[in-house]
Design brief:
By secondary structure, this protein is mainly α. Helix content is 53%, strand content 0%. The chain contains three helices and no strands. It starts with 10 loop residues before the first helix and ends with a helix.
Length: 70
């Protein structure tokens, strides 16, 4: 984290939540909170990290980026 008042501190997290909402939450009707938690967990573990390409990582997935770094 940088100093107080830096507007770029949360940019990555805010972008993730916008993506999560537009790709999953706003398109789905959840009957229970548990259904929502399970769906979001599956989205992150099964799609967002291993499959979805990210422009900030030269259009590769976070899992592939991590494998390259090791």
């Amino acid at each position: 984290m940088s100093g107080k008042g830096n507007c770029y501190d949360n940019a990555i997290v805010e972008t993730f939540f916008k993506t999560l909402k537009s790709e999953l939450v706003w398109r789905t009707i959840f009957l229970t909170r548990q259904d929502a938690e399970n769906a979001i967990g599956r989205y992150i573990d099964s799609f967002y990290n291993p499959v979805r390409r990210h422009s900030s990582l030269d259009f590769i997935s976070p899992a592939a980026y991590q494998r390259q770094a090791t």
